Amino acid sequence: MSTNTQLEQLENAIHKRAQSLADTHLQAAQQQREKILADSVKRLHQREEHETEIAKAAAEQEYRRRVQASEIKMQAELDQLRWTLVQSIISDLQEHLKKLCQQETTYINLLKQYLQSAAALFEDNDLVAVVNAHDHTLLVPQWDDIVKDCVPEEQRCTLATNTEHFTGGLLVRNQEDRIRVDNTFEGLITRLQNELYQVITAQLFASATPIRNI
Question: Cα-atom radius of gyration of the chain, to the nearest Å?
């Protein structure tokens, strides 16, 4: 075998070896590239999932916030509606009581009941009844008879000369004005506010529970 032939064979062997190494490195590089791409896609997918979860959580939180704000607004509007209706009915009640004062016989009988129930609460023997100016004029001529009918014999109840500015009813106090029983219409409404509110609300909103007392 000539020298040239040997050189050619050696050269070819080197070329093949180089080609083989190149192919091996190229394949390894391709695999590494694919691995890097796959890892990148995986990380990107994980990041997208993470971002999606964050977005979902933020959207859910915003949704809950809006629902809560809507519920609070609706509750406030419902409370306002209830309050307006209750006030309207209280106003109608006051008008009804004003008309009651004009029904003389019925009204005087009511005042007698108020006086009798108030007097029973006192241990004092000397009481004073206070009424408004209109009722004072109405009651003066018959006051002694009213007292006989409504106040125990051991007690005395005088009609005060001074009058108060209330719609109707009467206020009974002892002589020292330390103890008072307020059976005026305004006093009764104030004392019965919670009960009135509950009754009115129960009638207006039968399926709802009153949210707060007046």
Answer: 48
In CATH, which of 3.90.79.10, 3.40.50.620, 3.30.460.10, 3.30.2320.30 is domain 102-193? 3.30.2320.30
Map out the domains of the chain as residue ranges.
1-77, 102-193
d(CA 213, CA 77): 16
Q: What's the pTM?
A: 0.57
pLDDT tens digit string along 107-144? 999 999 999 999 999 988 899 999 999 999 999 999 99
